[in-house]
Amino acid sequence: MRAKITYLVTAAVLVFYFVLVGSRGVMLIQSGTVLTVTFGIAVLILPVIGVWFLWKNTQFVRRANQLAAALDAEGGLPVDELKRTAGGRVDRDSADEVFARRKAETEESPDDWRCWFRLAVAYHDARDTPRARKAMQRAIALHDGTTIEA
Fold it and tell me: Are 58 and 11 contacting, i.e. CB atoms less than 8 angstroms apart?
């Protein structure tokens, strides 16, 4: 729940920023000189890219949550079996051990979105966010029956 609230607050702040920057871009364009119009157009590009990125990220999170709910309904969510340090952080050796099992499971069933989902969680636990995201994208694509670039 805390992650959802953090995401929503961050998204709201970003939208506010996009509106603020966009209004400045419009003001520059309304000035009417070649230089300010050029800068205004350049400034308007930033919120467009930001809104696109926010939209794509929100879609990704929504789809990943749908997969988690589907896997939970099947009783297939990965169990948190990781050892933790006294400070509550995941023990690296424990994460590596779980990751090795998840990777082997995925290699045995490369077309099963459930395996890719669990592998994404293992990557995340091992603090490899880029690979966790790619594995989750693969799980989403397999679940939806679409293809993604390798």
Answer: yes
SS3 category, 143: helix
Q: How far apart are CA 69 and CA 17, in angstroms?
A: 32
Query: For residues 60 and 64, what is the distance between their CA atoms, to the nearest angstrom?
Result: 6
Distance CA 75, CA 8 (A): 28
The answer on pLDDT for 59 being more than 90 is yes
- Give, in degrees to the nearest 5, the angle at Cα 99 between 98 and 101: 65
Read off the pLDDT of each residue in 60-67 and give the average, rounded to a whole number: 93
- C-alpha 146/C-alpha 123 separation (Å) is 22
SS3 content of the chain, % helix, strand, coil (to 5): 80, 0, 20
